[in-house]
Amino acid sequence: MNSPRIPSATTGTESGSASRFTATPFVRKKERREAAAKWIFFSMAAAMVLPLLWLVSYIVVRAMPSLSLDFLLDPPLRGMTEGGIWPALVGTIYLIVVALAISTPIGVLAAIYLNEYARENWFHRVISMAVINLAGVPSIVHALFGLGAFVYAAQFGYSVISAALTLAIMTMPVVITSTREALASVPRSFREACWNVGATRWQTIKAVVLPNSVGGILTGIILEVSRTAGETAPIMFTGAVFYKAVERGDFFPYQLNDQCMALSMHLFALSTQVPGVKPSLPFATAVILLGVVLAVNATSITLRVWLRNRKKW
Amino acid sequence: MAAQPEKMVTMPMTADKHIEIQDLRLAYGTKEVIHGITFDIHRHEIFGIIGPAQSGKTSLLRCINRTIDFNPAATVAGTLKVDGECVRNVRNVYELRRKIGMVAPLPVGLPLSIYDNVAFAPRCVGMTAKSDLDGLVEKCLRQAALWDEVKDRLDSLGTKLSGGQQQRLTIARALSHQPEILCLDEFSIAIDPVTTMRIEEVLKELRHEMTIILVTNLTQQARRLADRAMFLWNGEIIELDTNDVIFGDHPKDKRTYDYVMGIFG
Lengths: 313, 265
Hints:
The structure holds 2 protein chains of 2 kinds. Chain A has helices at 5-9, 16-19, 25-63, 69-73, 86-117, 122-136, 139-153, 160-184, 188-196, 201-230, 233-238, 263-272, 280-309, and strands spanning 76-77, 82-83. Chain A is mainly α. Chain B is 34% helix and 26% strand. A 6-stranded mixed beta sheet of chain B has the order 6-7-8-3-9-10, sandwiched between helices. Chain B has a 4-stranded antiparallel beta sheet with strand order 2-1-4-5, covered by helices on one side.
């Protein structure tokens, strides 16, 4: 339907050959639309940055009066209305480390099985389905399960180990998924080349597949850390407490069967449960929680960039 | 390897059988792609397999070294013997694969150093002594006509070599487990004509030591190199004969003549 316009564009100029490249009204209309589309997409992308900047700056400004090294190292004082967050910080680190120590080996090895050994059959489909559904279970349901399974049935009581096991089960599906993606990014031709020279599957995995997917696997695991750090519900039901007396700067305040404090839980308690809290205290806690998560994510990004730079093919 | 005189340019038809295939059938799921083919490959010959895409050439090679096992949808029927031993009943399938060197169409440099690429197969069977490996790596790289280009940088990544170099690295790796049969699956489709000619020279040397199966889309390449050639089409053997007949003016089947002349279809 536009074809009649094309000859009309040539009327402005005498020389026929050059006229094909002049801007017709149709072309200008196309260009306006192009520019509009580009700006709409750009502004939406830019709009993503605003909430983050706003959120972070708001929290940091409100937290300013409390932020100091003492805040980091001190335990909460005077009925949690003053003081620092050391027990909660250490508790969160404990939970992360124990949860990862459980979920990483199981998740990574399961992913290797699923990606490298399993054949496409009903069993494989059942496992994949289970992984997907487990990843979709809300954390409060995990919490309830952890309470029933670890606190009561396994009789671990309210403890670091119960909370960490609950977190581990919650993070496992994501570890499996990200590991499978990392393994699948190694081209199949590499595996076939190894099989062709008489290598077993395990020799192939050891020599070629794992060394070239370890970066992706680590990235996935580290990103899981930030999720683990932020979860409140699962640990609230299974092992985190409002308050536990811990010495300033004590690195090993908890046993596996102790209850512990955690940053997310502490933030919840300060904001809703304790009367008369110094107003900047919850915000300062939030800053530390954000700091932990961002630091971990930054590590992950650095690792990924570093590994991409030494990519081998 | 250089000690042997020029010989075996044309093999007598009574030569001893290195690979015997009888009524081989292969199906992926319910779709049969090889429909019962029967032929022999003689020791120390270059056996050309020509035919268009989808005619079952690569699948046939996978049946021979049993990497077809990695495709769970594939079912194989018929007998397939290497050195008189039935491949489908082989217990030590890894040793079978080591007996057969396999070169894929696209060059595959493993993401390891050049040295490790070649030393991978020997290491898989527990060869660890550095002196043994050094010798073997050099021998294989020399055989693949790559040694002079890479001898100063054996530590650099195999994947960073050019396409033609990687294909020669692939050949070196295929030779590193000292196979008796070398299968080349359209080895020249991703490399330039000069490199192709170099590799063809290499093959002419290697034929004194091993049986070579040359799967190729380039009928001229098969004509240059092969002793006998087979025209495989849609999973059936259209014609199998000596090179003079297949690439001559009077092959038995008109389709062979048409395909070789490029007027197929």
